Amino acid sequence: MRRSAWFCLLGGSSQDVLSNEHATRQSAFASPPLDSNLHSLSRQLIELRIEHADLDATIDRLAEGSPQDELLLRRLKKRRLALRDQIARLENVLDPREPA
Q: Total structural domains in the chain?
């Protein structure tokens, strides 16, 4: 699920929080592209880390609010774990711990 897909899961003020965080992160990366190949593993790793950080912040904010949507929180946490697993796999491919 891409970032835009989980944005759709949220409504109301949570959407505003996500949009502001996303805009802030995008402006921080407005400098020249980090990698000319849009599909490189290092580029994918960066994008996954950004998405994971966004989800982390979103989960924290939603958990602070009093009317909690437990199902939404569980889905977001599950997505965050899946992203963490993807990040670990990519890190292992890019920098294997065992000699080849």
A: 1
